[in-house]
Amino acid sequence: MVGGGATSLLVVPDGPTNRPVMKKFGQLAGGSGAKIVAIPTGGRDDLLTPEWLEQLRVRAQEIMGVGHVTVMHTRDRKQADSPEFVAPLKQATGVWILGGKDAYLIDAYVGTRVETEIKALLARGGVVGGTSSGAVIQGSLAIEGSMMETLRVDATRPCWGLLTNSTIMPHWNTRKRPDLTPALAAQPGLIAIGIDEDTAAIIRGNQLEVFGDGNVGIYDGKVHGDKSYYYLLPGDRFDLHTRSSIPVN
User: Fold this and answer.
1) E strand intervals along the chain
2) For 15, 47, 187, 211, which has the most beta carbons within 10 A of its beta carbon?
3) What is the distance between the alpha carbons of residues 132 and 221, in angstroms, rounded to a whole number?
4) Is 126 contained in some domain?
5) In sequence order, what are the beta bridge partners of 100?
6) Does 102 fall in a domain?
């Protein structure tokens, strides 16, 4: 799915509950020697003031336990496609994408040099993490429609595809764990991944591991026991290539 020994960290919770996951992310990115790029473009314009962006940089550096954080933000696709703008990504060991509105991230960055350099970062063993829309954009498709109880798919939008053939549903438990099976019709071979709050899906190559306090659901169009998804608990592992659970030793 990701391949090449790369690591992608897909995260749901927003706010202070991020701390354990953000600390884990910092460790995966290289600890105190890590170079992190934080992307807050999913946020509202009235929030993304220079003062707030500097506070974000300082706070992310502290929580992750890393020595260097650069904040990268634009809504201009031409800027996102410029060599100067993406320069920090060439030196980064990790990219953290904050939550907000899916469309803001997709409109600004899909198909630009930002996407190209983030994929290059993964290929050289770096780490990508994100909350909410920052997790959604790591899949191959974003779903537009009703997300409560019964999923209604009105439209889909292409994302970065860091995790190929996938659509990612953050806040799975607070949305009452809707049946994500309708999303699978959007693309042959697609899987849908629901992730609870306070939970991360850590993906290394083809292996997904559940980290945190909640659960992950993986929908592949089949029935598993009495559910329409694999129900993964904290510490469980799943093979995204064979689409099967990995026994715990």
Assistant:
1) 7-11, 35-39, 68-71, 94-97, 127-131, 141-146, 152-158, 166-169, 191-195, 199-204, 207-212, 216-219, 230-232, 237-239, 244-246
2) 211
3) 24
4) yes
5) none
6) yes
Q: Which pLDDT tens digit goes with each residue over 174-199?
A: 888 888 898 998 888 999 999 998 88
Q: Is the pLDDT of residue 166 over 70?
A: yes
Q: E strand or H helix at 5, and its extent?
A: none
User: What CA–CA distances, in Å, run from 183 to 144, 174, 221?
Assistant: 10, 19, 10
* DSSP letter, residue 203: E
Tokens 């060599």, located at residue: 83
Q: How many domains does the chain have?
A: 1
What is the model's pLDDT at position 205?
87
Q: What is the CATH number of the domain that holds 75?
A: 3.40.50.880
Q: Is the pLDDT of residue 4 over 60?
A: no
Q: For residue 168, how many C-alpha atoms fall within 13 Å in the half-sphere facing its CB? A: 29
